[in-house]
Amino acid sequence: MSSRTFEDKKNPDQTTSGLEFVKGVGQVTGGTLLAITMLTSSIVAGGLVGLAISFRNLPDVRQLRNFFPSETTYLYDVKGKLLASIHGEANREVVPLDRISPELKRAVLASEDADFYFHHGINPKGVGRAIASNLRSGGVREGGSTVTMQLVKNLFLSRRRDFTRKIAEAVLAIRLEQILSKDHILEMYLNQVYWGHNNYGVQTAARSYFNKGAENLTLAESAMMAALIQAPEQYSPFVNMKKAKEQQAIVLSRMLTLGWISQKEHDNALNEKIKLGRIRSFQGSALPFVTNAVSAELARKFGREALLKGGMRVQTTIDSDFQRMAEETVSKWHKRLLSQGLYKNQMALVAVDPRTHYVKALVGGVDAKTSEFNRATQALRQPGSAFKPFVYYAAFATGKYTPNSTVLDTPVSYRDGDGMYSPRNYDGSFGGSMSIRYALAQSRNIPVIKLGKGIGMNKVVETCRILGITSPMEPVTSLPLGAIGLTPLEMASAYATFANYGWQSPPTVIVRVTDSSGNVLLDNTPKPQLVLDPWASAATIDVMRSVITEGTGKNAAIGRPAAGKTGTTSSEKDIWFVGTVPQLTTAVWIGRDDNRQLARGATGGTTVAPIWADFMRRALKDVPVENFKPTSQFPRPKGG
Known about the structure:
Layout: E1 7-11, E2 14-17, H1 18-25, H2 31-46, H3 48-57, E3 73-76, E4 82-86, E5 91-92, H4 102-112, H5 124-137, H6 147-156, H7 163-179, H8 182-192, E6 199-200, H9 202-210, H10 219-226, H11 241-258, H12 263-271, H13 288-302, H14 304-309, E7 313-316, H15 320-339, E8 345-353, E9 358-363, H16 388-397, E10 406-409, E11 414-416, E12 419-421, E13 432-435, H17 436-441, H18 445-455, H19 457-466, H20 488-499, E14 503-504, E15 510-514, E16 520-523, E17 529-530, H21 534-550, E18 563-568, E19 574-581, E20 584-592, H22 604-619
Parallel strand pairs: 3-7, 5-6
Antiparallel strand pairs: 1-2, 3-4, 7-15, 8-9, 8-20, 10-13, 11-12, 14-17, 15-16, 18-19, 19-20
Helix pairs in contact: 2-5, 2-7, 3-7, 4-10, 4-11, 6-7, 6-8, 10-11, 11-12, 15-22, 16-18, 16-19, 16-21, 18-19
């Protein structure tokens, strides 16, 4: 935090620095001696024991030279639109002194400590008045605190009102004034003080109360804000405008008496119509699931303390338009599914740009107000047949198979522990000899298991790891049917790698992170690496196109080239559709949090594919149609 010039007014036409203001009035003589004399009076009132304790146990104020208060972290969408804010105990944005309205600085000092630039930490006149008042009342009713004393109280001391604490405040204030300039102390105070409604610091308060930055506050707004310090919620214009205006008038009158404003300025400010902002701190994030995902990624990279107090500026990958469409799609279809008997269902939707692996939209449930659990990034659910493309890719990557290679859909049994495992198709039938394209399009189970066994299940596991799937999995016979837990984000990211022909960047919800001064802390500019075989990736996309054109995913047709796969687990506990066009990959999942059956006959093809198509049509409305690259553009891997 920098030390800068404080501008003050002796009259409407004269503006000087704080130091010049002090010199203009006259040199303060004997200030330190008088301060100590008055401090001694406080000590007598508080007791010698309190003095000893205070001097022995007080914190070292020298640490404030490098003090940085907690700041709010702000999240923006990919185009720079503010999405949400994250803060711990303090909603704060720190600003330097020269970016705070001179009107507000004058108003605060008039209200709290008019002699700020004259004293050395304690104000002899104020302490004298406080002692007399407290002796008359028999307790601590008036503090006589200077701005410096208030600052050390906020930073170091408890809020208990007794003589011992007042002694501690005075001692620390004198020490602080010996190591920091007046301007530095005032800057820290204005950024530290509580202004009500969970707003700490002048900048967040100005934005909350008047929807503007602290440097743009008018005299009328400044006087109203200055009055808040004594009792923020009680004098808040959000709570009681009449009382707020009364307190504003007191501050303006004090400024007039001090000669810091003219009668005309006083009258104009008193009559100025106040236009309020909104209580930002009382409103939850408009995008709780996005905030959840971003917070988790920030915490992994910087730690939770930095997330809550570091004042970071985070440009996310989220496209606000896509996000709005995604939330509206989930809301609309959830209501429709409820009417169809799918009770207690939850949904998740994740949209990823396959060219960058930036997450463009993320919805982790049907209602964040009732449950903030983010099913898009945290729920491990079985993908069912939506897992099959990973097996087919692994087969294509060997070079021994093409989309037209023949597989057998015939009865088979495998040793499984002490018994035998005999896989079945969804409809219980067998189709005999068929192409890989047809087997995937119709989501046949037996052919994909035979293929997985033929190339080795370890190859399938290896493919999943390359695709960024970290969930535990074993190379068991049933693996090709998706009998493992994956998140919708993992599924969307994996399919996005196929759509980008094997090129992959780490999936992320963050583009860039800076601190509050603009220094870059993290730059997630995509750095794609080729992790899969391009021909095998294009072949996987090619067979997944048949799922939509002639298979179980016909309800996902959107009038442009698209590839995808349905997923339905046993007993209809999890149903999916994951699909892609060259510019956007989206995964949609539906299930129940208690992992019970959704409804008989609920499948990825009949229930989820229409939802996917609805979202994609909206999201791609103004996006040019692109074709996928054919396999002929890539060399086929050796081995075939």
